[in-house]
Amino acid sequence: MYHRQAMKRLINLYIIREISVLFLLGITVFTLILLMGRLIKLTDLVISRGVPLADVARMILYLMPSFLVFTIPMAFLLAVLLAFGRLSTDNEITVMKAGGISLVQLMPPVVLCALVTATMALAAGVVGVSWGNTAFKRLSFEVVKQNVTVTIREKVFWDDIPGIVLYTDHYDEEQRLLKGVIIHDGRDKQRPMTIFASDGTITGGDAREDIRLILHHGSIHATGKEKEYRLVNFGEYAMTIGAPLGSGGIGRNELDMSPRELLRQMDDPAAPRPARLKAAAEFHSRVALPFASLVFAVLAVPLGIQSRRSGKSAGFSLSIGILLAYYILLALLRTLAERGGLPPALALWLPNLLFFGLGWALLRLASQERSLAGLLSLDAVRRSWRKVN
Q: What global pTM score does this model have?
């Protein structure tokens, strides 16, 4: 009895170590892949604007929680598929079964690893996403603010600050003078406006002051609810571009909100219905995505065992296929939820339920020494047909 328990303990530790090594490798690869899209722009900050590497490193750190919510379940799925694929290829699963250890008895270390990774992803989603996005926007604004006078180009649309698009026919960098100015201010989504001015100047932009545009001889075209339209002509107009995350919420979206703020907006009857739906979809997404690790734990074990003949390449291809199917389904259902086609809670949790059901069915087949391919084979179909008739 003691020998049997010691053997189970060794097998559990062996499986945990196998999954952990592959998980660390997978999370590194997947995070770097997602980060590649941002690295080009971040590299441009260092080369063309002289932004210190320390600030760029901080930006990457702030982006990490948004990536980890996705990459942690992805890396865990890959790790379990490759781990059990290798164990099956080397006939270690067969040896364990010969020793009296069933497939179900191999699940506890996998579930334990899934709980750890789900907790990590949940912490990243609940705490890290709003903190990281808020800090990233603030740091990005400070970087842009200190380099605004050297980044504006004449006859080029300038959109380095979220919600602001500026176009000028002529720009004098030394005197900070603009001529033929067009500005679209979409920071307040309820009242976007477009400004035309014959000329203007830029002031501020250092570490202590916000960016100020002093515009002359122009007009403001503003729209509002129910097709409201206003036109204001001015001789001089001072426009301040402050921090994008002010107390009024201008420039903020659901990604910048904490779970408590999302719940408050979901239950706010004064908020527009689209805003409430987006808040609900974001809240359930942050909670449902981490639990994908538990779903993938049930799904990956039988698939990893059945892909023994093709080795690691099959495990990697299979994991990519599952991830694509999962995230495409999740994106489609989230779009439906944000448009009011489905309740957000149902839409965001439905992929987990569907894939868990598939994984449970495959796990039962694998525990009965039956494969999905064998179940769908022509002979199996014929036998089933004979039993029916």
A: 0.78
